[in-house]
Amino acid sequence: MQQRFRHWQQGLVRYRLAFALVATLVLFIVVTLPFSLLSVVDDLLGSPDSRVYPVPLGTPSTAPAAREIHLHIAFTNIDEMQRLLTVRLSGHQVCSSACGPARQLVFFSLEADGERAEGLPPSFVLVLPARSETISQTFQLPIRGAPVRYPFDSYAIVFALHYQEEGPDGEFRPVAPAEASQQLFLTVQEKLPRLVMEEPDFQRLDQPATANGATPYLLVMDVRFVRPLYLQVLTVALVLLVSAAAAYAVFMRPLSDLVIGSGALVLGVWGIRAIIVPSSQNYLTAVELSLASVILFLLLAITVRALWFVHDRAGLHLLPTSPPSGSQLSTTTASTPRRPTLRRERRAHRPPPRRRVRLTR
Q1: Cβ of 350: how many Cβ atoms within 10 Å?
Q2: What are the pLDDT digits (tens) for 146-165?
Q3: Buried b or exposed e, range 159-176, using 16+ CB within 10 angstroms
Q4: pTM score, whole prediction
Q5: Which CATH code of 2.40.30, 3.90.220, 2.70.170, 3.40.720 fits the domain covering 53-226?
Q6: For the chain, what are the domain ranges?
């Protein structure tokens, strides 16, 4: 009787602990659900195109310049494996008469440790046409990021620009910032799936950056891309819920049912990946690591319960007594006798009533 009562008390502690964990999970989902719904509604009903940011190069004059270059910089794709950002340039050049000497735009991707690296950073050169003409070009630049942290991964690039003019000796030299602000008109926009660009951080022209003693950049722009909020919340919620479902199955189902349905449980846990991870991603992320940890916990718990079961059936005493499962706990709780009260003790010690015997003739 004492052993049953001890098991009953242990079952209460386990159920109270499980109640606290489940209540915390439900509270987390209830608190974060409104923010994720707002993010989903904004993504579905909002404009499919992101905000266009004008690039501040200075105060342009009201009078038209002899040469004007209007360019729109769009970030269209990120290759997470090779860490490359695809940039699409579109625009036109307008010259009132002759365009003058040849000019070019040089786009740089500055590295975080660029001061210690030899040579200039990766770049792309756009040679401007010698007449009024449309401009359309696509190129790639390196970008920083950690794809394995999906969906909490972020990517950043320090985008720099040179505006150069060809001299009499054939060498290209930087154009003065005052003149460049009268001729260059730039805008920036993000067109990436499942990524959101934060507002770019433009460095002031009076504090230009340099690389290994090179000429100052006309523009330095810090750009960062992050995942939408609803994708992060959805991923965390699904992983936690499937982990809780695996824990329910391990601790509350009989061992025979658990062994038979272990394959379905593993497939169900891994099936969450198809919901939150794009099929185009062929590399390992934090989602796969989390789901693999849940599957490892599930299979390890089944193995431990099987070891305890075989140990008890073999009549060994090497391990402590296996804790009862959920079904056994309910049976134990129902069969556990209540503590005797004073009234019950008195009833138990009363002498049996006398029986009257009726004599018949």
Answers
A1: 7
A2: 998 998 999 999 999 999 99
A3: bbbbbbbeeeeeebebbe
A4: 0.75
A5: 2.70.170
A6: 2-35+231-335, 53-226
